[in-house]
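seq as requested:
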Amino acid sequence: MIHINAKQTKMQFTKNGPITYRYVLRPVNYSRLAEKKVIAEASVRSGIAKGALKGAWDAIGEVLKAWLTEGHSVAIPGLGTLRFSVSGQSVEDVNDVAKDLIKSRKVVYTPSTDIKDELKGTNISITCYDKDGKEVKRVQDDADNEDIDDGEDEGDGNTTTGGNTGTGDNTGNGGTTGGGGNNDDPDNGME
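struct tokens:
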């Protein structure tokens, strides 16, 4: 189950435009799993010794680093591909092209079809909070889960509780992707 928070956040979509409140979705990330824990779990699942897995893990990391920095798109079996990318400014005149136009260098991950299908089939639970941090609603797409049930399930596969008492509208317009906008809590946008 993937848990998502929807926090009512002050937004402004155009300079000098009206300020509105919108519910911004953000996945709840529990923690960053340490390499040691991942290797230990992979060892249990595969029957391969931890030391052998650690050696393979380190070697794969070095290969990825070398090939990505050479400009290759690198496949990771069962997961997807990684590739190098940049973000930068565009210029009209070829004489203005220079290295300082690059604003950031990054690695882009493209998940495999298997990962996308797994995520698509994973149940989601959304907890909505108003601007004061009070929980106002829960939405869950897993009708079999009894954790969030107010007895009013209409049998449509969605279960909700609480009242949507927030003052913002929840039309899904705007958001923090695509059309932009100013978000008074930059750490609370979609990732």
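Strands lie at 2-12, 19-27, 74-76, 80-88, 102-111, 124-129, 135-140, 159-161, 182-183.
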